[in-house]
Amino acid sequence: MNDTPTLSRAERNRLQLRADIIQTAFEEFSAKGYHQTAISDIAKRLGIGHGTFYRHFENKRDILEHVINDVSAKIISALSAENAPTAVATLEGYREQTARIAKSLTAIFAENPGVARLILFEATSIDEEMTQRLLNLLDWGGRLTASYMENGVKLGFFRADLDTEATGHAVIGMILMSVVRFLNTPDDREAQKKFGDAIQRLLVDGVARR
Length: 210
Known about the structure:
With about 210 residues, this protein is mostly helical. The protein contains 9 helices and no strands.
């Protein structure tokens, strides 16, 4: 027996409209910039009234929160299961893991480069609370990356004197730079690959036990 509740047509329509608003708003943000996009731009493009928009979202910032939540969820998913901090037990396993993670993270932003541009260059100019949220996300990323390093030190395939915390945050800096390079040269796959390979070598050979 299937116990999953069936949504009514009205509820399905409501969820679909909410998704359409998010997608349309994001397209407008990507094309014009967050601050240059008005609620009227989003509503006009969808053919809905202002009142309909406000039944689903409080304001533009509310939609941006959703975008950040969505990206965060995708990143967390990419860092789970075989890509979790304690999922590997050898240097070779770690090498393969970093390649998988790099591929997954690249796919997240390659799917829609506007996401990275919006989060990195516009979200921090909205208000102090949003800026702090993004800084907290970067700090979380650094601490999570440090846990990968700690696993390697514990199992003996990373240097025993490795400063795992500082290295974890340094890795986040390299990842951010790779995103910026991708935004600057989105069609230069060769340059992106070289940069990605360089990061991977630093992540593996630079911290491996000698």
